[in-house]
Amino acid sequence: MPVFLYVLALAVFAQGTSEFMLSGLVPGIAQDLSVSVGAAASLTSAYAIGMIVGAPVMAALSARWPRRRALAAFLTAFVVVHVIGAVTTDFAVLFGTRIVAAVANAGFLAVAMSVATALVPAARHARATAVLLSGVTLSCVAGVPAGALLGEWSGWRSAFWAVAVLCLPALALVFRQAPADAAGREDVSIRREARVLASRPVQWAMVLAAVVNGATFATFAYLAVIATDITHLPGAAVPALLAAFGVGAFAGVTTAGRRADGGSDGEFGRGLLLALCTLPVGWALLALASPYTAPLFIVTILQGGLSFGIGSTLVTRVMRTASQAPSLGGSFATVALNAGAFLGPLIAGVVTETAGDYRGAVWVSAALAATAVAAVAASRAGVAGVGAEETG
């Protein structure tokens, strides 16, 4: 793998930490800025919406920019708004910085995914995507727990400063190591690429990726409260549980990337279907294991690996089906990932509030994963039926 891929993964790690660390900083933000916990929690939704809207818009606007300029501009904006967020005493300003940070993050990730697949042969696209997304999973392993601990020891502002500082080495390396030939094309047709992305195969891949990632984040958003309220673990154990999920996620993404490369499409399809069928069973087991410490940790690691492995595979599939839209394909893969990150916790919130039990979030994950399995099965049955009719 080209060294520059790991530079991009470092930046993605910092940005992923920023996106997910808020779950542990909400109480401190609410108290410091004199707002309700609900208002402080809305910062997470603001970030997710910024990612969903920002990815295609920023990818389209930067399509003709040199790739080095695009990556540097997005990462610089990300650093600046984190500095502003770290010093502001106005919640409205902080809210605005989260939206801008998300848009910059979305633009960077969309361009980075396109650059990553352009740097390697087609047979290694899955591996390149896995390397890039490993930054997200590593943020779950180390960044999010570290952010929670830093916020507890030094206040939430220190976590914002830490993210800004963490981006600086990646920014310097982008200026120095971005490939000279990684430039935007003058003949880019956004309208033509949009037609590609409006095709049924691309939309199907995006919806499937969003549903599976929605299942992942429905539970991930509630792991902390499940640990304290259902398993009755002390608050100090929460970072360890989040890290356990992240360790599994990192292993899953890495394994999925290696297995996808070089395999035939038929083998890849059978493996994905088998993993998908296992996914809802795993979420159900996690719900049942949640009152017990050791089983909770074990199943959390396994589900982290399975869910992120499948999720990264589906994101790669979005890129593959959108191969004729090289400028916007990465942005719509980003949309699929973050649509799940937004909708999963939203549905889980409604269910847990209605049921009065945080385990409802895990059952939401199981239901979403089962929906994905049913959709794939129906699709395969439909294709088989059409093939039989044509043969007859």
Task: Tag the structure with descriptive keywords.
392 residues, mainly alpha, single chain
Distance between the termini: 47 Å
Beta strand % = under 5%
Shape from CA axes? globular
Structural class: mainly alpha
The biggest beta sheet reads:
none
Number of distinct helices = 15
- H/E element string? HHHHHHHHHHHHHHH
Rg over CA atoms: 20 Å
Count every beta strand, where a strand is a DSSP E run of 2 or more residues: 0
What level of helicity do the residues show?
over 70%
- Average pLDDT over all residues: 82
Unreliable spans are 261-268
What does the secondary structure layout of this molecule look like, with pairings?
Elements: H1 3-20, H2 26-32, H3 37-61, H4 67-87, H5 91-118, H6 125-154, H7 156-177, H8 190-197, H9 200-220, H10 223-230, H11 238-260, H12 265-289, H13 293-321, H14 329-355, H15 360-391
Helix pairs in contact: 1-5, 1-6, 1-7, 2-3, 3-5, 3-14, 4-5, 4-7, 5-6, 5-14, 6-7, 6-11, 6-13, 9-13, 9-14, 9-15, 10-11, 11-13, 12-13, 12-15, 13-14, 14-15
